[in-house]
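In this section we walk through a basic example: taking a raw amino acid sequence and producing a predicted 3D structure, encoded as discrete structure tokens. The instruction is simple. Fold the sequence below.
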Amino acid sequence: MTPRAEDIRLQLLALRCRRGDAEALAALVREYNDRLLYYIRRLVDTEDDAWDVLQQTWLGVFRGIRALRDHGRLTPWLYRVARNTAVSHLRRRFTDDAICGSETDLDAVEADDPAVLDAMAVHEALGRLSVAHREVLVLYFLEDLSVAEIAQVVGAPPGTVKSRLHYARRALRVALGEES
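The resulting token sequence is shown next.
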């Protein structure tokens, strides 16, 4: 599908969702559930927390979809809802003095494939970055959002997003041991 056709398809999906079309809402979940889960997992401490935040995100999306005025901004809006939900979750955890170090499940995965090992190293390195750096890298490289769309998601000017991307790339290279 061409980029323009994809934009139109997503705009129509957003419009149908705004009107309360149950099939459109189900299609929205199918389209974005795994992507949002991956993004949220990079923001919160555990897999269980990520699933909880994802569920809360979808509740927020279903409650707020009627307020979405610009149907062309569906993707950044979804990530913004996910980000806000994750931040609220982290604040609650912090105020409950329940924050503990991030644990990774990468050690439990056994693979001999070099591509899998490289991907595991990148995911592990991402886990060592700050949340601000991690989220811009995930949104830019893995979710393929533009700088302008990321700026909408994180609520920062595009220049700040570019700066974070620059420093995040550097921090990732250091975390991967490619630079000291």
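Looking at the output, two observations stand out. The chain is about 70% helix and 0% strand. The first helix runs from residue 3 to 18. In the next section we compare this with other chains.
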